[in-house]
Amino acid sequence: MIKKICALFTAVALMAGGCLLAGCSADSPSEATVAYLTKLKSEGVNELLKLDQNKEVGSLFGDDGSLTEDQQKIMGDLLAKMVDFDYEVKNETIDGDSAQVEVAFKNYEIGKALSSSLTDYLSKAFTLALGGTTDEAALTQLFYDTLDEKLDALTEKTHESTVTLSLTKTDSGWEVNSLGNDQYDAMLGGLFSAINSLESFGS
Questions:
Q1: Of 147, 140, 94, 96, nearest to 118 (Cα)?
Q2: Is there a contact between 7 and 60 (Cβ–Cβ < 8 Å)?
Q3: What is the pTM of this model?
Q4: Cα separation, 117 vs 182, whole angstroms
Q5: How far, rounded to the nearest angstrom, does the alpha carbon of residue 179 sit from its chain's CA centroid?
Q6: Which long-range contacts (CB under 8 A, 24 or more apart) does 137-142 make?
Q7: Counting CB atoms within 10 angstroms of each CB, which of 30, 53, 96, 149 has the fewest?
Q8: Rounded to whole angstroms, how far apart are CA atoms 17 and 181?
Q9: Helix, strand, or coil here: 191?
Q10: Number of other CB atoms surrounding residue 154 within 10 Å
């Protein structure tokens, strides 16, 4: 179950950061960075809740690759928290057709919420198993319900991190390159740090 949960959040994070890279070129690296982050904040949730992507996420848990209406709402709440980051573009360095832009991010503690959700879920699932509950659908819903509780508790943006984004100059202008785990982690509230820890725990 731990590996499934880690795969779920990894898929969500990668789709969140990667699906909107196209079409964010600008005349300067800083402007391109702002264009990308603005687009991610404004359009990220809608992009990720498209039916085909929804099924891709749901398939990590269910055979039919679908999420219930309640689970869709919880995933929507999660995605909304993930892209509700604040940011400040700090320094820009240009070397020919390559550039680096330093960005300071501030977000909710998404990673801690995930870790706490899993800890509570395992405890509750163990209790249910002792009582004879082994239904996979019920256990899956239990995780979503636990996650929902943790998301509701996220009211302050206390996760702060500064990272460097790389860009390339194309015929259309400057464009942000694909992000790595460190950039995703800073942007999405420590999500990847939590995933790495959980994967180590589950291995």
A1: 147
A2: yes
A3: 0.81
A4: 22
A5: 12
A6: 137/62, 139/1, 140/61, 140/62, 140/71, 141/68, 141/70, 141/71
A7: 96
A8: 10
A9: helix
A10: 20
Q: What is the pLDDT of residues 98-129, one digit of tens each?
A: 999 999 999 999 999 988 998 898 888 888 77
Quick check: 151 and 81 in contact, CB under 8 A? yes
Cα gap 182→120, rounded to integer Å: 27
DSSP letter, residue 156: S
Q: Which DSSP letter does residue 107 get?
A: E
User: How much helix, strand and coil, in percent to the nearest 5, is found in the chain?
Assistant: 55, 20, 25
The label of the residue with tokens 């180590």 reads 200
Residue 68, SS3 per DSSP: coil
Residue 42 structure tokens:
């404004």
Listed as ranges, residues in the chain with pLDDT below 50 are 51-53, 61-63
User: CB within 8 A of 39, min separation 6: which ones?
Assistant: 20, 23, 24
Eight-class DSSP state of 180: -
Question: Cβ distance 159 to 115 under 8 Å?
Answer: no
Our CA dihedral for 182, 175, 168, 180, rounded to 10 degrees, sits at 10
